């Protein structure tokens, strides 16, 4: 009996994770437009990681059941008393069980990274929205400070009116 998964898929690399969650503050529009596609891509990655984790869980349960039966048969054939503690103590020492637990732990870790990527994208979206609001506010303030030709004319009339009252 052996665990047939030789290697689990990691799905994400540090490079594509960092690249997807970084922000280019000079091109907020493009960054916002890309968010839906990025979230979709990373959602698929998380689903695959969850499926992989569930497969490892099922494999572990199958390994446990087969080992449990084999150990019960072994103890019964030897005429030894079978207790749940005795079965459990022997079961966790079996190489195939240890391998299956290792695969499940690794799959859980991969799933955690994929879910963290989704959370990071949600944070990126929130930050992009805030940066966009800040950019709009800065533009509005800077535009308000630039006098238009009408504003200049109104100001000049007011100044002339004040000057004529003094004279």
Short description:
By secondary structure, the protein is mainly alpha-helical. The chain is built from five helices and no strands. The mean pLDDT is 85.
Structural account:
With 167 residues, this protein is mostly helical. It has one domain. The chain has helices at residues 14-21, 28-77, 84-91, 95-145, 149-166. Helix 2 crosses helix 3 (84-91) and helix 2 (28-77) runs antiparallel to helix 4 (95-145). The model has no long low-confidence stretch (mean pLDDT 85).
Counted beta strands: 0
Order of helices and strands: HHHHH
Taken as a percent bin, the fraction of beta residues is under 5%
Q: What best-fitting shape do the alpha-carbon axes yield?
A: rod-shaped
- pLDDT < 50 runs, ≥5 residues: none
The average pLDDT is 85
Structural class per helix/strand content?
A: mainly alpha
- Give the radius of gyration: 33 Å
Number of domains: 1
| Main beta-sheet annotation | none
Distance between the termini: 108 Å
Task: Count the DSSP helices.
Answer: 5
Short key terms for the protein model shown above:
mainly alpha, rod-shaped
Strand and helix map with partners:
Blueprint: H1 14-21, H2 28-77, H3 84-91, H4 95-145, H5 149-166
């Amino acid at each position: 009996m052996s665990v047939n998964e030789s290697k689990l898929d990691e799905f994400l690399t540090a490079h594509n994770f960092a690249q997807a969650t970084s922000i280019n503050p000079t091109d907020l529009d493009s960054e916002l437009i890309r968010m839906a596609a990025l979230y979709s891509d990373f959602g698929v990655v998380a689903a695959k990681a969850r499926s992989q984790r569930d497969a490892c869980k099922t494999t572990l349960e199958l390994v446990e059941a087969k080992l449990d039966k084999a150990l019960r048969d072994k103890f019964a054939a030897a005429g030894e008393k079978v207790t749940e503690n005795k079965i459990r103590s022997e079961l966790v020492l079996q190489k195939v069980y240890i391998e299956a637990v290792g695969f499940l732990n690794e799959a859980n870790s991969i799933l955690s990274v994929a879910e963290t990527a989704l959370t990071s994208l949600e944070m990126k979206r929130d930050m992009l929205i805030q940066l966009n609001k800040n950019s709009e506010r800065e533009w509005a303030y800077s535009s308000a400070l630039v006098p238009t030709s009408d504003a200049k004319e109104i100001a000049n009339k007011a100044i002339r009116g004040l000057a004529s009252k003094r004279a």
